[in-house]
Amino acid sequence: MEKTIRVRFAPSPTGYLHVGGARTALFNYLFARHNNGVFILRIEDTDQSRYQESACKEIFDSLKWLGIEWDEGPDVGGDYGPYVQSERRDIYKQYAGQLVESGNAYPCFCSPERLQKVREKQQAEKQKIGYDRHCRSLSESERRKLLEKNTPCVIRLNVPLGKTVVFNDAVRGEITYESDQLDDLVLLKTDGFPTYHLANVVDDHLMKISHVLRGDEWIASTPRHILLYEAFGWTPPEFAHMPVILSSDGGKLSKRKGAASVLDYCRAGYLPEALLNFLSLLGWAPGDDREIMNKEEIFSAFSLQRVSPKASVFDEKKLEWMNGQYMAQRSVESIKGDIIQGWKEKGFIDRNADENDEYLEQVIALMKDRSKKITDCIDNSFYFFKDPEGYDEKAAKKHFKPDAAKHLQVLCDKIEASDIFTQESLENIFREYAEKAGVSGGKLIHPTRLAVSGVSFGPGLFELLEALGKETVAKRMHNAISWIKENKS
């Protein structure tokens, strides 16, 4: 592309950053990186009644955790700042004044009470709900008198009537609106703060935004923005509206159905690269069968031409699967800090435990390939640190038959008598005894696993036994033998 690509993600700090917002940020980021462009973070905090200072921090933390890096923004600066809209009020006031002077906007003095009565009348008469343009027809002298009295007013766009507004959406093609269906939207509020519409258009122009990539809920606002650009005499950016994300049951995403915050996924044990990879495939595809892709591969493949207008589904099972793939790829070193901290919080290990302890690293190595999430690795590792306090009821019913005690006793005696305690030596003991006793390997492996861990799943048995150590294995096998004799006789 000939012109410099400049895109932005402009969240409102009114709550947590949910996955839909993160997907929008990601697509802007990918588009910028693919085209060697610039990605801007802008904070749209003009709605001061809903502003949350903590939300601003969460937006920053969420994007950084995901690995989305911005080139310009509140914390890194840039040539087109400030990048926080509440710090740009004088700019919006100036441009709103320009529109009034050119006749493309006008002051509206209607009180909230009058506007409410207009809405009620429109509802009663089943008319289109919207401003009735009462102040649009005021004479100059009437306006001057009201202004001299300091009558509270807003600034509204003077929407031209009888005009067809057409714009090309890079994802959806040509979209047409009739201006008569649009009301004269408020640009500047009585408190001097701009509405989203004015601030958005002014900032995108001044920050030289080339493409606006945003959620499809903003399609209906785009014709208003086009009219604003025309009123200023500016060329609009190109628009692309991302597809809606649905929950797995086909309904709208909610907090309960997948629209949790990005940091909720962090706390739930997901890896940032897995969530980023997963979000990149919500509405976009590389054009081949690839699903597991690192950031550089996605940068290379991403294009707006391959973004689909069709709704995409947030399939949490697929996200779990994908996270498991990334867990297997991760080194022990890269994840041990989070896992060891989790063990400390659960009381599995001492608060002062050394993160470089070889035993802890061995446990992580055994568990990470069998865990879909960091939290799985933490929660399912309990038996590496304490003896079973009981046995999984269903597994005990299946594997702790009366003859299991006899087999466990023979195996335990052989283990205790052996001078070597490795995976290979243990496997030989089990194989030789199975042949001699005329039983299948499963008849020995399943009861032994249950005896030493209390559960019926986990790493390979001989790896598990070697990690636990000879003394712990023998002790737990004796405990299980006693339990079987007491409960299965």
Characterize the structure shown.
With 489 residues, the protein is mainly alpha-helical. Helices cover 48% and strands 9% of the residues. A hairpin with a 3-residue loop joins strand 5 (164-169) and strand 6. Helix 1 (19-34) crosses helix 10 (295-301) and helix 12 crosses helix 13. 34% of the residues are buried.
Shape: elongated
N→C terminal distance: 79 Å
Structural class: mainly alpha
Mean pLDDT: 94
Count of helical stretches: 20
Q: Radius of gyration, Cα only, in angstroms? A: 32 Å
Number of strands: 11
Query: How is the biggest beta sheet arranged?
Result: 3 strands, antiparallel
Strand arrangement, major sheet:
3-4-7
**Could you estimate the helical fraction of the residues in percent?**
40-55%
Strand content: 5-15%
Which regions contain 5 or more consecutive residues with pLDDT less than 50?
none
